[in-house]
Amino acid sequence: MVGSSNDAAIVLAEHVAGSQEEFSNLMNKKAQELNLKHTHFITPHGLDEEGHYTTGYELALIADYALNIEKIAKVVSTKVHNVNINGNIKTITYTNELLGYLDGVNGIKTGFTNGAGRCLVTSVTRNGFNIITVVLGADTKKIRTKDSINLIEYIYKNYE
Is this model's pTM higher than 0.70 or not? Predict the structure, then answer.
């Protein structure tokens, strides 16, 4: 997740469920348990595929659920992680440009597909007030970042 690695998602899916298809079935079962009516998974990595879809609102619900899992919350709040590969240290930097940059940001995930554009689901906690924002369909990373910051600052400035 830190390196936004689709191949790692495939390996993990195959390890957990035996195949990508079976893992997607598990994800769809979880989506049903969470009452997500506009989400359906075909792949474990989220790349464009016919029949693979969700909504911004349901992405926020998925993020909220995932952040309650301690391991996931830790991973999505990690800016840099070093791994040892055959005695060589490789540094992986998280793709979430707001992590460590904007006050209170503690996750969660960037994304890009041709169909969805550049996307960012962001979790922020300030003064005990937690929010999750979702930006979808940005043409560039810069626009995605700006839109996310504007949305976050608007909420903290105006919500009571």
Answer: yes
